[in-house]
Design a protein that fits this description.
This protein has 72 residues and is an alpha+beta fold. The chain has one domain (3-66): Macrophage Migration Inhibitory Factor. Helix content is 39%, strand content 25%. The protein has helices spanning 14-32, 58-66, and strands at residues 3-9, 40-46, 52-53, 56-57. The chain starts with a strand and ends in a 6-residue tail after the last helix. The model has no long low-confidence stretch (mean pLDDT 95).
Length: 72
């Protein structure tokens, strides 16, 4: 049973998440011949202040961009 675990920043629409689930499921079926009924997809959403790259949270990065600053 393939389990696909995805972590995303919050903010995508339910329609976008549904599309992602469908595409990931179809990819697993095609790639490893998994029966569609056995594919599991878990989406974990995290707030931007809980996700960082290079020591800067996405919330801080977005705030800097919104205030006219450059992306670091």
């Amino acid at each position: 049973m393939p389990i696909i675990d995805v972590t995303l920043l919050e903010g995508r629409t339910p329609e976008k998440k549904t599309a992602l689930i469908r595409e990931l499921t179809d990819a697993a079926v095609r790639a490893i011949d998994a029966p569609i009924q056995s594919v599991r997809v878990i989406i974990r959403e995290v707030p931007p202040e809980h996700f960082a790259a290079a020591g800067v949270s996405k919330a801080d990065e977005r705030a800097k961009l919104a205030s006219g600053g450059e992306k670091g």
